[in-house]
Structure formats: structure tokens, C-alpha cells
What we know:
By secondary structure, the protein is of the alpha/beta class. 38% of the residues lie in helices and 16% in strands.
Amino acid sequence: VRRLCYTRRVHFGSDNHTGASERVLNALATANSGHTHGYGDDDWTRRATAAITEVFEREVDVLYVATGTASNTLALACLVQPWESILCHSQAHILLDESTAPEHQTGGARPTGISGRDGKLTPAHLSAYFASTGADYPHNPRPGALSLAQSSELGLVYSPEELGALSELARSRGLAIHMDGARFANAVAASGRSPADLTWRAGVDVLSLGGTKNGCLAAEAIVCFRSGLAEQLGFRRKRAGHLLSKGRLFGAQFVGWLAEGHWLTLAAHANAQAARLAATLTARPDVRLAWPVQANELFAVLPSSLVASLRAAGAEFYDWYKDSLPSGLALGEGECFIRLVTSFATDDRDLEAFAAALGLAAPAALS
Ligand SMILES: Cc1ncc(COP(=O)(O)O)c(C=O)c1O
């Protein structure tokens, strides 16, 4: 048994290395029978939008796409002009991991990282940017939107108060507010605050609500709190080739995902496993966490020899961008910086195998 534990593959690479939750698959299986109209004109899509309306406690316009990149960049295209910039965290997905899709979809608007090595964006970053950057228009790019990730690029969670302060300042300078919610469920589950408090009540205009990392196969919803965006979003989605003819595929996934708080159950599990993983890792004196673990991602500095032995024991995780290390945390000689991600599918055996590979006792079982 012990040998099996050692050789078990342990997946902390990404929360999109998972399959889908059983409930989501069951919803898809149910939606499989019969004929429906296409392109979102079907009852599954209408039920999904009704469920999202209920979750956010207000009328919203919702369009569905299959990838987070499409969701983020189509949403941003509705908020900015081609000559504008999109202010974001220096590690933002739209800045580092979406190629030039933001520029492509927006017609040229430029994502601009303004946080340096700080974990979260604050009003001070915005003020410093406004104070130090040229406003000689049309020569300089004009800031058109603020894009925030919730949970954040470094696994942190913004409170409604933090979001409110950011959006108030941004709005006073004429910026629209976009939220990259690829891990929004993790933020809701972690904070215990309502989806409404974490979005439109805190000034968010459009949310890219991600299902894919947390139990769906491929389902992302662009949730518009500002009215009047849906029509152009519809044209943009079609033009970009992201309008699915079998719209029920998205509708069914969201119906299964949102029913009875399933999305939050899945996210709470991922968060709890991350907290346990963090407790296990930090039991070793040679491991340092770069940021507190607030959702389902861990960023840690470890001896390279330990990283190599963890990988040899079957653990999978990524080396992470060294320039995202907090300024107070220097990487020593022979150390690596890594990211570990838990998910709804991380089970106790994953943590046991990881603890064994670290030479530690397994954490107590979750349930
Ligand atoms: C913060 C963030 N936003 C968006 C995405 C979605 O990207 P994709 O286009 O790969 O679905 C990811 C996935 O890695 C992410 O981590």
C-alpha cells in the first residue's frame, strides 16, 4: 500500500486538468434527448440564465462561450475602444496567458499590468499609474477599463470593500470594470459573501463566470450587469466564431452546476483541500508560501531537490513566473518557485500521497 501511495500520480497542475462533476454530466445526459432549437434558443439555455439571474439577485444579460479567453476578451471588447488600455494585475491572465486575443477582439486595446509584485491590485496602484503615466491624448493610450481576477492571479480573494474602493476610483476616471471569474466560485465559497456583493454591488460591469475549472466540461458565461451590452456581445461572439449551434450544451452544464449550490460545494471542497495541502507543506521548515492560501491555489518556494523528488514520486505541478514573487521573498540558491492547484476532484488520497512524498504524516481526512 505504501509503495502504491508513493507512485500514485498526484495532480496539482491545474484545476482544468479535471473532468466534469457527475451532476453536470447527468444534466448533459438529460439534455441529450430530443430536439431543441439552436444557438441558445432553447429551454436549457433559458433555465441556465434564470439560474444565473437568481444567483446574482437581479436581471442580467448572459452569453455563453467555451473558453475563458473568449469570455474575457469578448467582454472587454464591449467595454473599451481600440485606442484604450485595460489596466490589470501584472500577472493577469489577459496579460500573460491569452496571447494577443485581447488586442484581437478589442481591435487593439492594450492590457497593461500595474501591480508590480504586489499580490492584489489596490487603489494605490491605480493612483500611482494615473500620476505617472502620460495623458496626452490621442498620443497616449487612454485607460478604458480595469480588469480584476477573482479569485486573483495569486490565489487571493478580494473583499467586496476592496473591490468597491477599486471600482470607485476607476469609475471616477471613466473606466469600466471587468472581472475575470475563471475561479469566481472559489472566491464566493472562500469569502462567504454573496455573488452580488462580489460583483455588481461592488461596481463590476461584466463578469466572466467560469465553470470549466470547477466541474463543467467547457462552459463559461459572460454575465452583463450593465444593460445595453448584450446586443453587441451577440454580434461579437458570432463574428469571433464562438456562437455554439447546440446551445443546450452550455445551458445544461450551467443548470447542473448551479442547482442546489452544487458549484459552491465543488469550490468549497477545492478550497478546503488547498488549505490542507498548505498545512502539510508548511510543516516542513524548508518550504515557504509566497502568499496566504485563500482559495484553491498555492504558490511556494521549495528546495529544488525536494521539487525533483516530489515529481519523481508522481506529483504534478508547474514552475511559476519568478517575477510574481513578492518583493520580500527572494529565491535562494537551489530553490524553485512552484504553483499547486487543487480542484473539486482532489481527494484525500492525493493529499496522503503528497504528504508521503514529503516524508510527512498524512493530514486528517476531510470528511
Ligand atoms: C485567471 C484565469 N482566467 C481565465 C482562464 C481561462 O482560460 P482558457 O482560455 O484557457 O479557458 C484561466 C485558465 O487558466 C485563468 O487561470
